[in-house]
Amino acid sequence: xxxxxxxxxxxxxxxxxKRLGAVGWRxxxxxxxxxxxxxQGMRLHAVVLDTALxxxxxxxxxxxxxxxxxxxxxxxxxxxxSVAQRVRGLRLGVDDWVTKPCHPEEVxxxxxxxxxxxxAAELAAQPVEPIVAxxxxxxxxxxxxxxxxxxxxxxxxxxxxxxxxxxxxGRVVPRERVYERVWGYAMAHGxxxxxxxxxxxxxxxxxxxxxxxxxxxHFGVGYRFDAQEVDEDQERDDDVAASGEAG
Length: 247
What we know:
By secondary structure, the protein is α/β, with parallel strands linked by helices. Helix content is about 45%, strand content about 20%.
């Protein structure tokens, strides 16, 4: 994940950069604004911007930045402002507006939330044709999966996990990649969230479609979606996979 921090407050930037590094984000620290075209060329996921650095040019800069094709998520982090100023910024396309003094952890959380919202919108804008595999029908337009017309009962994150894996055409998706796509930021060392959610998703798929295996574990690498009918003499590897994920 790539983020630019446009802010001249060295103390605030130093603490924020440390937290960004801890979650695996790559941060460009800019004490003054770059032309919007240069920011666009950096292929950023998000920008944290102190509009005080722009003076009277702030509104035109925000309008140009937020209006770019594939614009990054924009979080304004600046000093006290009026309601009218914040409303104007949001209407120009700013994703969030944070007032200083503020804690860098809150700024990070707001950036993560803005990126997640962007990704959810991108998913919603994708073609809504269902993915059909085995007995399973995955419906992006409903954020749900069905077997025989009956909903499995997935949470939003379980659906995003299933949809990501099912859309990879049998390829193995590394755990780190799953975390970045579904959770929105880099996976911390030792984090087992992906494994926990895969285990929960497996159980729901088994209950709804016991004659099929959909999720396959590649130990030390990640997961693969491949609908395979269970033969009578075939032992399901889910229990083995689950014990490996829990380890």
